[in-house]
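Hello K.,

You asked for the raw outputs rather than the summary table, so here they are, unedited. I folded two proteins back to back in the same session to keep the settings identical. This is the first:
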Amino acid sequence: MALDLKRLTKDRPIRIALAEDHPLVRAGLKSMLGAEDDLEVCGETDRLSDLPALIQTTAPDILILDLSLPDGMGLGAIKRLSTGFPALRILICSMHEESVFAHRCLQLGAAGYVHKRAASNSILKAVHTILNGRRYLSEAMTERLLQGAIGQRTDPEDFSLDGLSTRELEVFTLIGEGRGTGEIAHTLHLSGKTIETHREKIKKKLNLLSSTELNRYAMQWFMETH
C-alpha cells in the first residue's frame, strides 16, 4: 500500500533508519538524506541485533540496510523484519552484486535494492519510489529480470547461484570473503557442523569436487563482483 506522501510530509518528514557499519558511508547517507526537506534520519546502528529495538523506538517509514554487518548477514533479517514490522519499507544498500542478491532480497520482503556504486541520487529515487508503493531496482537489473521472465536471459552466469538457498548463499558469500568455517559459524550463529553441511550442499549444487575448489570458486566470484 502506498503512503499518502503529501499528507505525511505535511505532518512530518519521512523517517529513515540506517543499518550500516562503515562510518563514512553512514555519515554520507545522513548528510544526503538530511538535506531533503521531506526526509529525516531518525536512528542508526551498525548491528543487526539492534534493529528490532531501534525500529520499535524510532518508528521509521524506511530502513536502509546493508547486507553485511559485523554480527551477521542481512538476508535472514529481511524476512524477520518485514514480517515483524509489516508497515516498514526495507531498502537494501550494499556492495554485493545486484544481479545475484537483488531478486533474492525482494523475494524475502525488501522493497528495493541499490548498489553502493550507484549514483547518490539513486538512493533518493529509490526512497520515493518505494514510499509510493513500488519496487526499486536499477534499470539494468529490471531488464535482466524481464528477460528471465520471458526466457531471454542474455547473461546466464549472473544467475548461476540461483539454486542456492538463502542460507547457502550467505555461507558462499562469507567463504568468498575468505572466512573459515569457525568464523562463518560465529557470524551466522550456527554450529561448525551445520556450516560444513551447507558447504557440502553448495559443492553439490555447483558441481564442485572439493573444499579447495569451493574456496577458490567463491573467492574468485567475490573478487569479480565486488
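The second followed immediately with the same parameters:
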Amino acid sequence: MTSLLDQFTPDLVVRSVQEIPLQNLAAWGIRGLLFDLDNTLMEHHGERFDPFVTLWIKATLAQGFKVAIASNSPPERIVTLSAELGVPGIARSGKPRRGGLRQALAVLDLRPDEAAMVGDQIFTDVWAGRRLGLYTILVDRYARHEPWFIQAKRPLERAVLRRRRA
C-alpha cells in the first residue's frame, strides 16, 4: 500500500545533473529528460548557464536523449535560455500542476513512462512528476541563494528524504 508521502518521494537523488546515470535510464526505457531550471541547471534567476551545464546537456542530447526545460519562469527568460541549450522550453509550467509537463512531453513526443523529471524541489518538481507517472530525479540545489518561500520548504523536504532512506 502506498502512502501520501510516496507522492513526494523521488525515485533517485543525486548531487548534480552530472551524476544522473544516463546509461541506466536508457536501459530502463527513459528516452527524455524534463528539467526544472532555477537551482537545478543554474542559480535561481540566473542569466547564463555555467559551461559545464551546457556541455553536459549537449552530451546528453548526443547520447540520443530528448531534453526540454519545464520551468515556472516567464516566457522571455525561457525562450532565451532554452535557445542557448538548443532545447524546447515550457514557460510558466505551473508546477506542481501537470499541464506544463504534459506540454513538454507532447513537444518531445514522449509518453510519461519514457521520461524523467529532474528538479531541486520535492513539492513542485518531484510531486508534479510523480503525479504524471514520470521517473523523478531530485538534485541538490545548484546554489544556496533562493527566495524565502523556497527556503521555508527545505526542512519539510529533508523530512521526506529521511523517510526515503529509512
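The chain is about 40% helix and 15% strand.

Happy to rerun anything if the numbers look odd on your end.

Regards,
P.
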